[in-house]
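Run folding on both entries below.
>entry_1
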Amino acid sequence: MSFYVFANNVNTQLAAPAASTDVTLQLASASNLPTLPSGQIMPLTLTDTATGTIVEIVYVTAISGSTLTVIRGREGTGATAWPTGSYAFSTPTKATNVNYRQTVSNIAGLRLITPISGNIVETLGGSSLGDGNGLDYYGASGASIGTYVDNGSTIIVPTGGNGSAAWLMGTPPSSEYMGYTQGSTGSVSRTVASKLQESVSVLDFGADPTGVADSTAAFSAAGSSDGTGVVEVEVPIGTYKLNANPTPTGIVTWVVRSGATFTGVGSLNGIGKTIRFSGPQAPLFIENNSVNTTGQALGLYLHIGNNPTATPVAGDSVAQTITINNLNGRTHLWGMDVVVAPDASGSDGMCRVLELEIANTVGGSNPDPFSGNTPYRKNGIEVVGMDGSNFNLTSSLTTWANDTTGNKWWLEGISLSRIKNYGIHFYKNPGGVIDSILPFQVAAIYDNSDSATVLKVDGTHTNIIDLSNLTTLTSFVKMGQSSNQTLPFSNEAAFDITIKLDAGTGAGIQNASLTFADRGTTQWGITKTTGNSLAIANSTSGVTTALFNYNSLSIGGANALGAVTGHFSIPTCAGTPTGVPAYTAAGTVAVQFDTTNNFLYVYNNGWKKSTVYA
């Protein structure tokens, strides 16, 4: 309680005006001002001179001559601006009436005072002043009528009282008779008991902090102290034995202080919520979250209003900020470690480690997501590598299974569904800033896992790979192994396989070509020409070697007499051919040359010879 100092006949006026924020007052007179010991206060009342209805109570904490140091606006009054001449006087107030110690001459004088809980009165005598029978009495009030009967010594009922209040001899038995005032503007007087009862501790219900006795019943009682209502129970430093799980009736939050430990088979798991300070897990550890009436397990729920921007600045709302600095040489840094352990039977159904939702978004079709100047930036997860990372960032997102057998691996690393434009989009210049080095210097997608299939496509699609906006391409497929390589196309089912080169769907007829190069230089090409012919051409000389058109085959062109290239070659044999050709296309014949007899043979229901003259 506060210690008050009173003085008679302190009645003066302000010698100077005082603003509502001033903490010093200048009195016109220092007459009768008391000496104010350190830590004690003197109540002072200020009123206006015109009506006497404007009142402010201040607490004087220091006196120097006629200058007072004060605390403004006490006991429910507001700090007011006062003009010079305003009245200032010392008189008992409601708070001081609850807390101060009165004296009376004898018991008869005590009967003239109404008992108030928290008040203490000293009698200076029993029958008369100074007769040696003076004792202390404390006020008791609020009981039923007839509870107290005046016996002239230990119980004194006030004159005209009905027995519901009395003065009781001796020292107040508990804090319920001691007054308490918080002291700030708007505070009210109450008892110390009511102040202490604001918090609940397991020690209030007999818990043993030495760990010897079982404290289960004490924990249950503490959690039931408000019936079925909400209660916060403090678990102070100590060791508590729980031989069973507590069974509170209330909605409990256990506040476990640093240094509080538990033994026994019982625990607080699943019983309300637990907030652990500086425990073995973390400086602040929240566990054992109960399930609400809708069946949703509640852990930490943050609801942030307004519209936070991409990078927190002054005025932004941030739900949670985690900063970890490696100032003590730790081997590993963990920004957040979330472990979700489903039931081994799978009966708990859907399980999410992290779910992010952006509600009620309004934006454009596809603006630059890295531009801070667009209102459309709404990213589910954004990972930014900042300066000061020693330029050794390894991976912005890593998904792996802590298991080597494959039994507990993820079925899918990343699953995307209902993405309107692009499932994964790689940007070159985020925010319009030109990079000092090229991004994705090795590859935009890199598979080094020895997987069975790098890219697997199911379903129905218009295009597997869309290169319609490609500007520059050096190699579509690049191979660089040290041995000969084959790029196979295979159909695992028993059906034909076709590789189609389509020159486009426009009105004009375009070329479609397949070229063959050697060390970067194109040598040969097979082209479907604009005339719908198939040409085989030497790309170096530009000479068309063969041309297929309208069921005709044209080979080469006019040749010089001394030409060493541009010749047409056919199969040969040494003598008359005898075999039956295994395959000839409809409307065609097989041809072969006999180098021994210089005959040209044509197969038409048998080999027919034609003499070639020298």
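>entry_2
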Amino acid sequence: MTANDPSQNITRRQAMQTCGVSVVSLGLATLGDEVLLGHQATLAKDTLPNTWVKVLDAKTGGREQPVFVYAPKLRRFVMAAGMQHYGGEGPRHYDTEEFDLGAAKWFNAYPPGTEKDRPESGPVGEEYSRQRAKHGYNGGTPFYKDGDHLRPGAGGQWHDGKTYGEYCYVPDDGKAGAVYAYLWNKTTL
């Protein structure tokens, strides 16, 4: 497969569904062995530079135009916001997820104290999906409350959480760094 091979073109929807696969695989070429553990380190050493490698084939959780950064203090990729599901109450992952490249696994990044009885990774559950499905239906806001925590929305048919690439990661802010994003005509942290 080459970059110019038209037989390898995929639709935007397919790209959204495989976001975790294709974007994270780029990390193999750009981050080096410092973030890799176990079989992933072997995979990176056996792969030619600038070669796409499938790291994970997730069936759910794809997002269109999310925040997506590597947080070196966490040693993980962080994905937040974006358009997660069009309409209805399909399976939704938490609004923010972290990807551990060495484990080749996504983790739901819950605020402290809200993780009780919630899955470590994957879809959060029917109640969460039902609550997020109507986010933005009665007026726009990029945020919702999870317990005492204000959280970024992760898109549904009435909530446009797409970042359009207008975000940056500042590694020196806070314990793990900070992401500043321009959403809904506002700069957010």
